[in-house]
Design the sequence.
């Protein structure tokens, strides 16, 4: 993915903050680096000094392929923000994640063209789970964080750089209680810039998920009597139907000025159920493959794995797409009831 200009890098951070319902007031010029801004939500406000670069591969052929870095340029020493927060960050559109480094471990004068590294594994984990940590070997702990979890990282900055990211990473999918999110008495706020933007994000995830399902439809129809055993495979057509019903109900509500939150919650809960079934089927298929030693039955297990574990509806892309959609809906609920 192409490198972003400083202005676009700043915009990535500001957009992630505003998407969580905060307002951002710039304190520095568009071309100044570091960027300084004030972020506020209700009675809470903080001043931020942001150093940011593109994340790129760690260097020449001798560097590990999995190593990424920010190459620090035009900065001789990081300056702390008085009574505020100083961020040292990198952005990767390929991983859809920020890398964040602790300024306390980079307080000295910098050498010629220094760099700070983070691994592709850490960035991938953040893209999947919301946040991930990586010990740097010098008592520093780097953090990778997905944009929709950036506010959680800022609110837990010190703990995150001590390796404690429970409050930054996503909650497990099956622990999100959508019924509780529609409890009577909650003050709902529709129509804000952040809320409308999140609707578009949810709709984009639903569209991508539907494309994945459409692509596997011919394979599902061809399974016939060769479908995996009942214990491993809930009816594939039924599961696809449930995902489509959930998608249609959420899309219909998001076309309204004031969506019915209970209808949206029912759709999200239906996606949760499908995700849980797929996750269990994946595990059962893997266990079956490990347990079977007989050559003839091993072939059967391979067929089960192809249909239930590694391909069709049970391939990781489908499950991850459903889980990602669930998280974006949960974030929408967070935005309408701050």
Sequence:
């Amino acid at each position: 993915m192409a490198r972003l200009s400083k202005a676009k890098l700043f915009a990535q951070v500001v957009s992630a903050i505003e998407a969580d319902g905060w307002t951002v007031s710039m304190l520095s010029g568009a071309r100044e680096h570091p960027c300084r801004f004030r972020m506020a939500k209700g009675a809470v406000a903080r001043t931020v000094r942001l150093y940011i670069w593109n994340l790129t591969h760690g260097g020449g052929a001798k560097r590990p392929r999995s190593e990424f870095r920010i190459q620090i340029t035009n900065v001789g020493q990081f300056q702390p923000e008085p009574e505020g927060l100083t961020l040292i960050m990198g952005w990767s559109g390929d991983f859809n994640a920020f890398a964040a480094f602790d300024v306390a471990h980079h307080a000295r004068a910098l050498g010629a063209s220094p760099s700070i590294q983070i691994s592709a594994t850490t960035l991938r984990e953040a893209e999947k789970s919301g946040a991930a940590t990586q010990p740097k070997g010098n008592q520093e702990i780097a953090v990778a964080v997905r944009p929709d979890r950036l506010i959680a990282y800022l609110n837990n900055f010190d703990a995150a750089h001590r390796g404690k990211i429970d409050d930054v990473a996503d909650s497990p999918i099956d622990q999100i209680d959508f019924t509780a999110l529609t409890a009577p008495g909650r003050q709902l706020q529709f129509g804000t810039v952040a809320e409308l933007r999140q609707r578009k994000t949810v709709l984009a995830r639903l569209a991508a998920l539907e494309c994945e399902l459409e692509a596997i439809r011919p394979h599902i129809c061809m399974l016939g009597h060769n479908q995996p055993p009942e214990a491993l495979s809930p009816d594939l057509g039924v599961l696809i139907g449930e995902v489509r019903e959930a998608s249609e109900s959420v899309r219909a509500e998001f076309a309204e000025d004031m969506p019915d939150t209970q209808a949206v919650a029912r759709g999200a809960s239906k996606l949760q159920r499908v995700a849980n079934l797929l996750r269990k089927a994946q595990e059962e298929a893997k266990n079956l493959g490990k347990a079977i030693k007989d050559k003839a039955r091993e072939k059967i297990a391979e067929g089960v794995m192809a249909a239930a574990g590694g391909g069709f509806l049970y391939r990781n892309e489908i499950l991850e797409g459903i889980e990602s959609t669930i998280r974006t809906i949960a974030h929408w609920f967070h935005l309408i009831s701050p």
The two ends are 34 Å apart (CA to CA).
